[in-house]
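[INFO] parsing input record for Deferrochelatase
[DEBUG] input buffer:
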Amino acid sequence: MADQSIPEARTPVTEESGPADAPQGVTRRALLGTAGATGLVLGATGGAVGYAAAPAPATPLTSVGAEQAMFHGKHQPGILQGLQARGHLIAFDLTAGAGRKEAAALLRRWSETARRLMAGEPTGSGDTDVARDAGPSALTVTFGFGHSFFARTGLAGRRPVALDPLPDFSSDRLDKARSNGDLWVQIGADDALVAFHALRALQQDAGQAARVRWQMNGFNRSPGATAHPMTARNLMGQIDGTRNPKPAESDFEKRIFVPSSGEPDWMANGSYAVVRRIRMLLDDWEQLSGKEQEDVIGRRKADGAPLSGGTETAEMDLEKTDAQGSLVVPINAHARISRPDQNGGAAMLRRPFSFHDGIAADGTPDAGLLFVCWQADPLRGFVTVQRKLDRGDALSKFVRHESSGLFAVPGGAAEGEYVGQRLLEA
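[DEBUG] output buffer:
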């Protein structure tokens, strides 16, 4: 986990804009007033049989459900959008006998299904109706290719050098069955049923061409759960992600996306995703005092501000000492070691999900972070920072990297194209 934040990219539907199926001339405000009145009538009726329906909280729920991300564009969706409340990460392997032709047909099916679902439309005659009553809920679907995909499809000569396998790290305890894969899909939404609906539809679309290798489910805080937008907290209770690169920065595109003139050409405007399942050893972490936890991270737990002072976004003073002459930000603090200026400017855009998969056999929580980071070059991004963390990060004794994957995520599909078409039909 690096000390970087995720950009907020929410564009709420305004109070005056009605849903697409509203009668002409009826605003959302009018509909909300009607919904509230209906809720009160139902409540009065229900009271006769021993219960009352609460007035419908229409404004926040309707605005969240109505948010829509675009499928077609310069970059694939699911990279620049803000953190989403629910996510699924899935890797597929092509089945025996499936090659380039079958892969192209699969990506064509997947792209059309993603386009429809992201627009809040059913998938077709075989739709499961799981999300029938919901809007698109900011659904995003993102597709990527793993190292093994290229040999299986006869495209080894077009595999990017940047997709070479990640090196081993001392903190790795990797489960090969839950790592890598030919194809990778990231699903995110602000409604759990909408996210599951997309997951189920894409699994069905795989048909005989591909089988699921692994699947991981994650979550984040729901939009609107805090009084104002703020950097997310992880399951350790820490504000996690303060120094994420921002799209407004002049070198953002250069650090996160492959340039339009880059190599290989089919990766133009794409990015590389590193995916890690990072188990948090919460029982050990929670034995630390609040002060000890802050020293491990290098930031105040309450507001994310650096221990050297200021607010969350204040520049960290790495040289500041206390009355005894000790560094205020410990030499092995996570935030100090992971800073881009301590790693040759290495940067990655983090867009993670938390996970909790129950209680392990030893009684400890199987919980942590589904780490997803984006960069134009994983060797200069993730690998550079992780090597530094591997050599002395105070946080490393409280986390365990249990699975890993690296995927080439091509640029967005233009109107009439499917994702990966420039690779598969070149």
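[INFO] Residues 245 and 349 are 6 Å apart (CA to CA).
[INFO] shutting down worker
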